[in-house]
Amino acid sequence: MIRISSPTPDTSDQSSVASKARSVFSDKPKLPSKKDKMILTTFSIEPEFKDELNDLFNSMGLRWASGIRFALKEFQKKYQGE
After folding, report:
1. What is the CA angle 53-41-52, rounded to 5?
2. CA angle 58-64-68, nearest 5°?
3. One digit per residue, pLDDT tens: the chain, 82 residues?
4. N or C: which end of the chain has fewer CB within 10 A?
């Protein structure tokens, strides 16, 4: 006689599946992730000016995207008070 037994899932697998199920079917509102709060913005810029900005950001230890964010925040600080 051949006996077929169903594999018993690991308890850690069961707990992770249960926690995922609770989060999916929970009535609590979900908080948006940080990535969901970001907005993709595109703009045109002259290549020479981009190179100048890139050099400036590099001298400050910033990459392109973080340099742009920094510059926009500084711009906002400067002109928000007026």
Report:
1. 5
2. 110
3. 566 655 555 556 667 777 777 766 666 666 666 666 777 788 899 999 999 999 999 999 999 999 999 999 999 999 987 6
4. N
